[in-house]
Design a protein that fits this description.
Layout: E1 13-18, E2 24-29, E3 33-40, E4 45-52, H1 53-62, H2 64-74, E5 83-85
Antiparallel strand pairs: 1-2, 3-4, 4-5
Helix pairs in contact: 1-2
């Protein structure tokens, strides 16, 4: 699976390294992703998500259930992609 945030849909961007002489070579700007465990109250279980820092702030702002519903609605993740921890 590629490195994509499951909440915001952020992924690596392509850009240029620009040297002092203005020569340009391709590079990628990676996303600040990490794995985080959450207690999902609606399902009464722990889940594991791959998040960006912006995704974590969004969960803190609107809540886990609302963030998951909007991510599934926008197509960033599927309910099958969310890993349930026993």
């Amino acid at each position: 699976m590629s490195r994509i945030c499951q909440i915001t849909g952020k992924k690596a961007m392509i850009g240029n390294n620009v040297s002092h002489s203005k020569r340009r070579t391709k590079r990628s700007f990676d996303v600040n992703l990490f794995k985080k465990k959450f207690y999902y109250v609606e399902q009464d279980c722990w889940i594991s998500l791959t998040l960006s820092a912006a995704g974590l702030r969004l969960i803190n702002k609107i809540g886990l259930d609302a963030a998951l519903k909007s991510a599934v609605e926008k197509g960033y993740c599927d309910w099958g992609d969310i890993r349930v921890i026993a």
